[in-house]
Records
---
Amino acid sequence: MRAFSLDLRQRVLDAALRGDHTERAVAAAFGVSLGFVQKLKRRWRTAGTAAPVEQRRGPTPALSDEDLAALAEHVREAPDATDDERRAWLAAERGVEVSRPTVNRALARLGLTLKKRRSGPPSATGRT
């Protein structure tokens, strides 16, 4: 969901602060919710602006893009390494301590799987 434009926010806020109409009437006039008008007024009182709050993006990834590229190269060099060996390599070579699930998620993000080849055709002998 995208934030309302700053222009719309300012027009709604101006109408709500003028006091000519109720918050409910302002919301109906601009096609926004009553809660939006109330939150916009609260934001104006606390922050002094009608601009939307910057969205939080969560924690930073444990492995950077450079770490992922190095891990992909390491997989090409040592395709049979275990997850623990990859973790040890990342700690020794890249200075990054990560968990086993982090290594698995990184490999999945890189499109690298454990299965080395597709399944063969079904057996010609059939069921017995």
---
Amino acid sequence: MKPAVLWRGGSLVALVAVAAAVPLLNNPLVTNVGVFVLMYVGSAVAWNIFSGFTGYISLGAAVFFGTGVYTTALLTEHLKLNGGAVFATYPLGGLAAAVIAVPFGLIALRVRRHTFVVVTIAFFFIFQLMAYDFSWTGGTLGILGPIVNWDPNTFYNPFYYTALIVAVGSAVLAWAIWGSRFGLQLRAIRDDEDRARGLGVKTMRVKLTAFVISAFPMGILGGLYFFLQGQALPEYAFNPFYDLTLALMSFLGGFGTLSGPIFGALLLEPYLGYAQYQVTNAYVAEVVLGALFLAVIIFLPRGILPTVGEKFTSWRVAWVRRSAGAQAAPAEPAGASPAADAVKTGAAGSGAPGGGSQR
């Protein structure tokens, strides 16, 4: 196995081990922040499985997240679930999001690139208005979750470990897809969809499959969010801020890479948590986020990790070349004269015998 693969695998295992130990600090505030960090890590990785691998920028991911929220909320309300029983509804929230992704994708994926972005935004607002207007969603009042009487010191631990499982599972799934034939087809679509179709790739089927796969983890995390907050509200379940944040995290870390969304989420989520508790005007945080998004697109279009990796590679190649050149430089022979050097230079630069140039 290559050293780079071993290093990346070891780094991932170490990162997961550190993340798993966070609740052992017995600090509810730190654990609560950790829940949201892991939720964004899982969501960003899932978003990248489709948008990053295919190049189709989706701004309708909140549709899947909100579907998970309301699926869990409705099941909890009608089945009178309480306590840990609610955790069993999370996979159903993911399944509902995946089901919604099928008609969503069949319509949206018929168009390309910029038009696709507009269609996903339209779908988002349709679902948001449905949550506001339909009686069975509770309208503007939403749906109240069950009251949970858990120990305050360990209240967030079940949510934390559930989010950690989803985040790790999403990362492993993305890694498996990347190295598979399916992942190769996705990247072929990103590079040149028409040529990929000419080579035999069933582009619609491949795109739709990735779209559905990416929806599943987001639906699970939506159910987790409902139980964590204790209420399903349209403005939070279907929040455009969520879509913008996922896209920014992926672009910031490295759009279309495996580790980029994880790095972007770990880098950006602390700011979001700080803004939530310290900034009184929520619009200020959104303005800063939008400005940061614009700066990343202009100055770091490939993301931090790819840019830093390319710089490091260029520096390493330049250093190797300099080292090789220094070792290969012959020692100056005794008695060498400028005339001899000129003859050598003329012979080396000549394309024909005698130093003349061929035409």
---
Amino acid sequence: MNAYKARSNSIPWPPIITLAAAILAVLAAWVYRLPFPQGAVLQYTGVLLLIFALAIDIWSIFTMRAAQTTVMPTKGSTHLVTNGPFGYSRNPIYLGNILLLLALSLILANAWFVILAAAAAIGMKKLAVDREELHLLAVFGAEYEDYCRRVRRWL
């Protein structure tokens, strides 16, 4: 567990995974379009979901900066942030990223975004969340365990 004390990752997986999922969804739809319901109501819902996702990400970043800890997943945490969006989700930025992909599925009427959002969530869990949890446990110990008992990983 001490290997995770300095930092959880050397590669910023979550933004890479989110961007890759978006690019793959666009390319996949170009090759083979899956059926997906369309309409103005779904597009407007997608826009609202997109705004909500961005708001979660921005709120999370400001909360982390206010706590004077890093936003970068490649750097070690100096403070355990448990307020703001972190009072609802232990990974609100990653949740925002997944919601962003789902919003794009509605805006673009592209089912591939839904499929790749699920794949992105699994990838983030394996490549980022699991490692970050080990890092936070190594750095904050019982305080982090208590936080995990109070707040869910995603939502």
